[in-house]
Amino acid sequence: MSHSPIAMDLGDDQLHVVRSALDRIEAALPMLVTLESHERRLLTTMGAKSEAFARQTLRVLEHNPKIVPPGFDVAGAQADLRAVERLRPVLERVQQLAARLDDTVAALGSDVMDSAFEGYALIKLSGGALGLDELRRELSGRAGRERRRSAETA
Length: 154
Hints:
mainly alpha, 154 residues, elongated, 0% strand
């Protein structure tokens, strides 16, 4: 018996629409980058306090161009800040969607495993009469490991 409040049957048409939408999003943001973990660790992070510092510094530099050397790109830094401001709401929405997708896959997987354990119990109970003893033995190793793991996490 299912314990999670979900039932889903995705059709090919739905998946095609979703994949097409994701393709359009990626096409609309071709400038997105991919960082290796070591590259990400080298980045200077911008939290809330750091952002206030950066905003104020850029504002001071904009209003005092005489102190800015010719190679220093204040306008480029300001454009980056505007891009951060504009991408943040998109990122938040994508993260919310990713969290819902993750929860949905977990709930569906739980349903599948609950059904599999119930089915395995039926095989144990009545499978011998149908010649399913060998199959039951093959399944028993997996069922025992999963039940132990479930009990340990509970």
